[in-house]
């Protein structure tokens, strides 16, 4: 049998971002627009997000070297890269691990004309898009200039092909975004639309939570990745670091 998958695959959502904080403030004030000056790609971690990443880094650091990541892949968005950098700062990767590789296919879902709008803002400014999303659902609805979940899944298929081609038998850590975590689950576990949306309805993916797959050579003809943990937040809870789980804010340049 030729193993094509990594030995272990961890998928981590970045720590809380400044965009999440700005979005919460906009919702609390009943505003249609999220007040943030930067492009979505440039939104940094909040102070709490940095603490969350540090807790995660210390949790990885406490593992034996043979259980730490040997490969780190990150979304190009600043909040994901900062999370990966902090994990590495606390020696959360294996000795001799390669440098963090930035992969644009792991970027956040693009919101198009809905950038920086709250739910109220979307309803007020683009009521037809709110109605289309209600009719089509988030899996298929593509806002003008943005992406549906299907669009995200298309680029992630290519990313997984790269992982199986170059990182078989490695221990791979991916640092990304909530929708990416869910869409990767959809692909790795060969889910249906109904199955992944049911998981999504159960609750948001927590910031700096860990989703873990381990390779089982006894599954199928070529072995399979098996889910061993989802939305795991013990690394934060053990240190008393607050757990946050709000969706990423649809923020972009003004």
Number of strands: 6
Give the N-terminus to C-terminus distance in angstroms. 53 Å
Helix-strand string: EHHEHEHHHEHHEEH
Derived structural class: alpha/beta
**Tally of helical runs:** 9
Largest sheet: number of strands, sense, barrel closure: 6 strands, mixed
The Cα radius of gyration reads 18 Å
Classify the beta-strand content into a percent band: 5-15%
Average of per-residue pLDDT values: 93
Provide the low-confidence segments as ranges.
none
Report the helical percentage. 25-40%
Tertiary shape? globular
Strand order of the largest sheet: 3-2-4-1-5-6
Describe what this molecule looks like in 3D.
- The chain is an alpha/beta fold.
- The chain has a 6-stranded mixed β-sheet with strand order 3-2-4-1-5-6.
- A hairpin with a 7-residue loop joins strand 5 (210-216) and strand 6.
- It has helices at 18-29, 47-61, 78-89, 119-125, 127-136, 149-166, 178-188, 193-202, 234-237, and strands spanning 8-13, 71-74, 101-102, 171-176, 210-216, 224-232.
Give a quick set of tags describing it.
254 residues, alpha/beta, six-stranded mixed β-sheet, 39% helix
